[in-house]
Known about the structure:
alpha/beta, Rossmann fold, SIR2/SIRT2 'Small Domain', 6-stranded parallel beta sheet
Amino acid sequence: xxxxxxxxxxxxxxxxxxxxxxxxxxxxxxxxxxxxxxxxxxxxxxxxxxxxxxxxxxxxxxxxxxxxxxxxxxxxxxxxxxxxxxxxxxxxxxxxxxxxxxxxxxxxxxxxxxxxxxxxxxxxxxxxxxxxxxxxxxxxxxxxxxxxxxxxxxxxxxxxxxxxxxxxxxxxxxxxxxxxxxxxxxxxxxxxxxxxxxxxxxxxxxxxxxxxxxxxxxxxxxxxxxxxxxxxxxxxxxxx
Length: 240
Ligand code: NAD
């Protein structure tokens, strides 16, 4: 299957909703999770990125997230993110549902982005629910091991879904509605192994996949392109 076939399918099957995973951001220099060079090959997620670890030792979790926020903020959108933003501008992509926390879709210009695992943009107060900007959090982390809520003094939690936490209900609801209404769901750069997000393509009327390597739903995809997200999505744009 070629990028031209995918372009034709996107034009024919509207509305098209895109579901992205870590694979769309690897070309921005951000490692994915499950490859041998991925983040969890080096650190144990349950020690640094779980809600239990946060309750036990918030300083340790913030030590990991301070470095992660800084490196994700340094990353720039790549041609894959930019192509999806352009497809939205042309009215061919309704919305993006992403598992990524890096904010690169928004920074590429995509307007309707549903962030299923939160983002590095903010931190939140578990007690009074205040949300704090990343810049304020990073400034506080210069002074102390974990940032504090300016309203109630509670220790702030990273604005991402930690292991052991439920996904934000509003994001689940919106993503489910978008998937049910989609004539085509285009999955880019995800193994489709993490639930409940991995179940969203089953709600759409048809499925296309752009991924290097297998995904859990390849058997259900009408079209699969085994290739890099940036090159493939740029070629899709050029085929329109
Ligand atoms: P994953 O690591 O399970 O799968 C990524 C897939 O993308 C793999 O099959 C990989 O081979 C493929 N891939 C890598 N580079 C590619 C490229 N350039 N073009 C096409 N395909 C490519 O990722 P997932 O399914 O998103 O796993 C979910 C978890 O990973 C989520 O919880 C998400 O929050 C988290 N995550 C996010 C980021 C980020 O924000 N950028 C980074 C790492 C992990």
